[in-house]
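Design job #97: recover the sequence.
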């Protein structure tokens, strides 16, 4: 089942018109990248049963690596490079998925307090980037300066919607995962 779900998500992200729409709207590109980190990466882990894989480094290190990877690829200069070069675009996509998959493996393998902390730290990193984009004083992403008007948005509105999506719904994924882990860990300690 995880394999079919993984293939369906991959098809939606890269074969359907959704991926091409990300060239026009930063909002769609952000949704795309959030799906990479929060849905495709854990489905890859599940499909390949990678949660048992030994990976060097601590959960804290991989939390930082994954968060930094996401932040760096959404810095205007690197983002513009990725949107202007197929090779750099695929490096961006692979690095986001790879660091997210490794991070999810580390979360799955960690005790509940550490996993919860990593999830909440990632939620804060995602929310901070979203808030930065939402409250920016100008539109930062040149590849979308001339493409948003066809969709009834200014580049600034597109960036603000993307920021809100990253700030709230994307952060919510990590919060729900953290609460689930806490709930299960507390349930397993309850007396029978």
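Job complete. Output follows.
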């Amino acid at each position: 089942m995880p394999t079919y779900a993984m293939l369906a998500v991959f098809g939606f992200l890269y074969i359907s018109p959704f991926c091409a729409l990300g060239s026009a709207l930063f909002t769609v590109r952000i949704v795309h990248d959030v799906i990479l980190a929060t849905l495709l990466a854990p489905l890859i882990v599940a499909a390949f049963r990678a949660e048992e894989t030994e990976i060097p480094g601590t959960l804290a290190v991989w939390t930082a690596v994954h968060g930094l990877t996401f932040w760096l690829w959404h810095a205007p200069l690197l983002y513009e490079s990725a949107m202007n070069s197929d090779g750099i675009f695929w490096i961006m996509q692979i690095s986001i998925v790879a660091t997210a998959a490794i991070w999810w493996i580390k979360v799955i393998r960690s005790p509940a307090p550490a996993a919860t902390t990593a999830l909440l730290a990632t939620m804060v990193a995602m929310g901070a980037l979203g808030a930065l984009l939402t409250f920016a004083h100008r539109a930062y992403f040149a590849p979308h300066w001339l493409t948003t008007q066809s969709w009834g948005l200014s580049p600034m509105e597109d960036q603000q919607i993307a920021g809100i999506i990253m700030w709230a719904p994307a952060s919510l994924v990590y919060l729900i995962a953290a609460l689930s882990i806490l709930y299960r860990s507390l349930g397993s300690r309850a007396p029978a």
